[in-house]
Amino acid sequence: xxxxxxxxxxxxxxxxxxxxxxxxxxxxxxxxxxxxxxxxxxxxxxxxxxxxxxxxxxxxxxxxxxxxxxxxxxxxxxxxxxxxxxxxxxxxxxxxxxxxxxxxxxxxxx
Length: 110
Description:
This protein is an alpha+beta fold. It contains 5 helices and 4 strands; from the N terminus they run ααβαβαββα. Helix content is about 35%, strand content about 20%.
């Protein structure tokens, strides 16, 4: 999970015009304390009963299921990564691509 923090500026456009929400079954107090103590600038949400996971078809009854949502500048979900594998470098590459696709295309520089 430290990849979230360590690659924040690269993966998440430094929080500009995009929000990435990581959702897991961990208790909200556990997540809040962990995120604070570890210096995470990312939004985490708790889904202990896998209500969100069930709604999006990614619930599997395991406590370690992680779902990631990318929210664009208009407040709409632009990407969802179900069962995000925090141990896979490819997962972060895919997340970076989802964030990049959400951002408005840069105009010509003058």
